[in-house]
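re: ur question from the group chat, yeah i did fold both. here u go
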Amino acid sequence: MSTVYLNGDFLPKEEAFISPDDRGFLLGDGLYEVTPFYEGVPFGFDEHLARLVRGLRWMRIDFDTSGLEAMHRELLARNGLDTAERALVYLQITRGAAPRTHYFPEGDVTPTVYAYAKAWSRPSDERWNRGFTAATVPDRRWSRVDIKSICLLPNAIGFQDAKERGADDAILVRDGVAIEGAHQNFWAVFGGTAVTHPKTNHILPGITRDIVLDEARRAGVAVEERPIQLEELTLADEAFFTGTTGEVRPVVEIDGRPVGNGRVGDVTRRLSDLFLARVEATKATAVAGAAMTQAE
């Protein structure tokens, strides 16, 4: 029986209930974040928190985030995941329960805060090395994709369309541009340069995306932030996604056609290695910090 967090309490999932008047349930009026932990060490927590705070401010949801890291750690511990090789915490904050209106409720409304923890795993080396497939689908999302809203119906429909075509992932296309995946950022490699869509209101500013860009620049791997035209995909040497649990996820086939030679490419492998090295360095720093604290 898993333990979840709801509005200040840790309780069995089976005992967690929200009001039928909750605006997240009725209107999708809320935000979410998914933060990974490696052997109990949070990865990119500050960046996830900053994105959440930015979304809360934009949506005008008044919520104090100062206790969230402690809550994440407690939730992992209560589920026996505080030393798990890989775990995540899903956090969702809605405006709260109030009579249904299309405008914000009048008076004070307490936000609904829900979180759960679970383990996750990478694909096996054999599966990763085979690569994954993707299908292009229309991007039907709203114009503020940079806000990590819980309104994910267009993403779900796009992913389902891709699945029904036999693909592992979806690439969302808007106005002839391969924007991003249904739940990950998308990249293509041309002549050794890894290209991904720039930050605009039409993509989610991915934490993994930013880390990969940072590591690539430090290592001298050529990167470029620009729109990728749909017709360019036939010319790509490599392609991959980046995301919290996908990490760096290679794509070897798009719409039934091989990407490049149809195998995981050198740039994708290099960026994956750099990302995983960043994870290991973060873990090592955390362990050293904990040892120093104990010594004091």
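okk and heres the other one u asked abt
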Amino acid sequence: MPELPEVETVANGVHERVHGQLIERVWTSGKPQTFKSPESEIEAVLTGARIERVRRVGKTIAVSLGSRGEFLVHLGMTGRLLVSSPEVPLPPHTHAVLSLSGGNELRFVDARRFGRLSVAAAYEGPGAEPLTIGEDDFVALFRGRKLAIKAALLNQALLHGVGNIYADESLFRAKIRPRRQAGRLTRAELLRLRTELVGVLKNAIKLGGSSVSDYVDADGVRGFFQLEHKVYGRAGEDCKDCGTGLKKVVVGGRTTVYCPMCQR
């Protein structure tokens, strides 16, 4: 599933190409799993609206439409939000097409239909923003919590946008084992984790995200951060820092990879 850097990359790319344009027509596929809001409501809100901004909130893309509210796009497992010329054939599994005044189309494509489209008055997300949360607020998120730090990082009510890839990668760089109880980490360890998490997320955004499955940006281009992965997806391989074999465990129902030597 696309995480914060992938969603940020898509949102920024779409914004650059469509902001300021009017939505002239809206087509939807009629597949019920895709739509959290009724298709008729989506069409009514979007048709004739001007796209003021496209931003990321957690793992959700929010298309701001001024007084009409926001069009929300959750990519799910395989969702793609693409800016295309009308002459380009519609990909299979296209579920929404927004015809824009600039001549292009904004298309939502989702083979597995785990993505969701909806409209809302405004959207702020369930948790804190990892890229801007302050040191004291970050430490306070985990104070007294008995769950494993990996599971805490994945809890979208605490931090929205962090998923399996960047939880594993930031914990490795912070030298913290994923099963350690969140509430027992010291302030120094949590501050180190915050620093590494922000660094990993920003570097991943710079490299266009991690393309480990179906993820592509607004132009259909794959990201490159997967080339920087230290642990994610590398169970059984040698640690790039110390040479120890990487271990795989399950934490909070999610496959987790760590180095038993580097992480304590």
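fwiw on the second one: The beta strands are 23-28, 53-57, 60-64, 70-74, 80-84, 94-100, 105-109, 116-120, 247-251, 254-258. The chain has two domains: 4-120, 135-258. idk if thats what u expected
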